[in-house]
Amino acid sequence: MFRVTPVASRASSAGAPTAPPERAGLRAWPAGEGVALGDVGRLLRRHWLAILLPTLAAFVLSVAFVQVVSPRYTGEAKLLLESRDSALTRPQQERGDVAQPIDEQAVASQVQVVMSRDIAREAIKRLGLVGNREFDPMVEGVGPVQRILILLGLLPNPLDRDPEDRILENYFNRLLVYPAGKSRILTVEFRARDPELAARGANTIADLYLASLAAAKVDTARFASSWLGSNVDMLRSRVAEAEAKVEAFRARNGLIGGVAGTAGTQPIGTQQLTELSTQLSQARAAQADANAKAKLIKDMIRDGRAFEIPDVANNELIRRLVEQRITLRAQLALESRTLLPQHPRIKELNAQLTDLEGQIRAAADRTIRTLENDARIAGSRVETLQAAVDAQRDVVAKGNTSEVELRALEREAKVQREQLESYLARYREAAARDAESAAPADARVVSRAIVPDTPSFPKKLPIIGFTTAVAFLLAAGAVVARSLIAADPDDQRGRGRPRPRSEPGLAGSPAVVRAAPAPLGRAAASAADAERLEAEPLEAEPLEAEPLEAEPLADPDAPASETERPGKAPAAPPAQPADPILQRFDFDLLRQRLDAVETAGGGRRLLVVGTGTGADLDALTMALGRALARSARTVLVQLDPGPAAAPGLTDVVAGAAAFGEVIRRDDGSRLHIVGRGGESAELLVREQQGLGIALDALGQAYEWILCAARDAPQGATRPLIASASRWMDAVVIASDAAPDDADLVALYDLAEEAGVPEVIVAQELPPAPIAMPIYPLRRSA
């Protein structure tokens, strides 16, 4: 028979018995320090009277306060900050621009403007707060104590101050100005005992603020118009002087401009140089044209193509000679039909034809000579114009220095003229905006204050509820603090230090303390008691005695009802379960630990992590589930892979199946089983919120939610274990490894990092040795 016993836990249950190290071979991990979250609720319920009395006292005092205190009313007006200049009232140079938006700094600045002392003094006068008992501290005069302090010089006489200045402090205490969120709306709140005064005060302050903005813009326009008016006359005289200097310098240096509309404002010398340059270019073009024509005609006459020259062909003399040659060639052709070449008629015609060609060539030569003469005439004109241009260039070069000075004077005169025109335009615009109603304020009232019906102070229900809640929290905190202060001094000294990780000599392994096992039955006894009984000396007696039947030894860690008391008969042995799986395990001590675990609501959630094979984990979880199912509704959720076709938890999380499709009943017990499903474990790691919702749903129907997962080699399933541990009330690590085993330490740290309230390490131990009955000895002869 095997016994599954908790050997280590992170937070031991209340009243769990422990035994010294020599009592048994069971190991338990140290309990956590401080007060557990579940202990706080029990602590508050135990000291309910100490919490109830201060809470009731605070409730009664808050009710009395809201009934006695004088109510105050709040008037609220809202202002919108925006630019109200239109295109007609805006200056000419700014009419095309878009108005700049008002930023947060500008809004904060306007809040301070509303709370300025000038507006406050004017508001005090208009509202008639002087002599008001709520605002004026000197309505009843100076008290005797205050008068003595004034006579001793320790306090200034308040009557020496202006009446408005005496009320400023109370005025600002009743005034609240703030922007509404990140908008450009200012909220003006004014509080007073008189609701009509509160509404009138908020509206008056808003009107005074708008009037101050409008007056500031009018003052700015008046200052601009007066300043511009004083500078316009001075600029006019300066412009006249600058223009006179320009004309005098131009006349003195001969820099007279040309005729308007022809050469612009260039000097006459420059205009003449331009005209001569143009004529020189034309003469050079004519010369080049004549030379080109003459050369071309010579070449064509040399080639016998004189008649192709347009100037030769268009000559009247040459045209007649060409016609005569054509006639002679016709006659020569006619006579050559009947006469021989040596005939006198033929010779005569040839002689006439030769003479006509000579005349044509002579006429072409005359044309060539005419063109050559034109070219020579053009060349002489070019030379004359070149000389004139050179002379005029010298004149223009001498006048450049004077032109530089003239341009400087003209620029200065132009600047003065433009400045004068700008000042004149702005002066006219400023004079137009000088009127009282021409410059509207950059704000407007969007909501005027009305007379309030309900007081703004005191808010009865919020004050009573807040005071009562604060008193309750303070009383509960005082109870918890007193319990912490009254705790064991050794615990107080050790609190705040890290929990030891290992025993001396076992670096990196979990800390180990020892605990005793639960009794197995009538014939079973603890190994420590058996060793103690065997070690006791045997005493011999002279009388003979009958053999005595052995009685079971009481386990020191068993409950008082199960422990054998003196003078009473021993308890009957417990009945063994009929289930063969349950006969292998004993979960009594583990069940005691788990029953003490606090839960957040619904069923208790327990995760069993096995470090052995899958068959060992299945047997352990099935036995534990059947043991729990005998007294409570229990469901076993298997996180290890199962049959591929069977739907399970992953299908529920993925939304592919309902709970009714994945829950099946264990044969021979009341245990319900849910497999992992066909999806991979990555779905449960990725959809952690869906896993929590599924476990919450199971907690509404079952008292125990038992989850099982095996620690695969190389930690392949540890992301799944960490994801599931986040939603567990306790984690049981089933491992027979040594306390300093790396995998066991890693699993323990993994559960602690997930924030599990209770982490338990359990081992499968062999049954304790059975104590043999002891018979007294008797002496014989």
Q: What helical percentage do the residues reach?
A: 40-55%
Distance between the termini: 46 Å
Strand order of the largest sheet: 1-15-14-9-13-10-12-11
- Based on DSSP secondary structure assignment, what is the total number of beta strands? 16
Q: Could you tell me the radius of gyration in angstroms?
A: 61 Å
Query: Structural class, from helix and strand content?
Result: alpha/beta
Q: Whole-number average pLDDT?
A: 74
Shape estimate: flat
Report the uncertain regions.
1-5, 10-33, 258-264, 487-577, 777-781
The main sheet comes to:
8 strands, mixed
Enumerate how many helices there are, as a single number: 22
Tell me the fraction of residues in β-strands, as a range.
Answer: 5-15%
Describe, in plain words, how this protein is organized in 3D:
The chain has 22 helices and 16 strands. With 781 residues, it is of the alpha/beta class. Helix 22 links the parallel strand 14 and strand 15 (758-765). Helix 21 runs parallel beside helix 22 (742-753). The two termini are 46 Å apart.
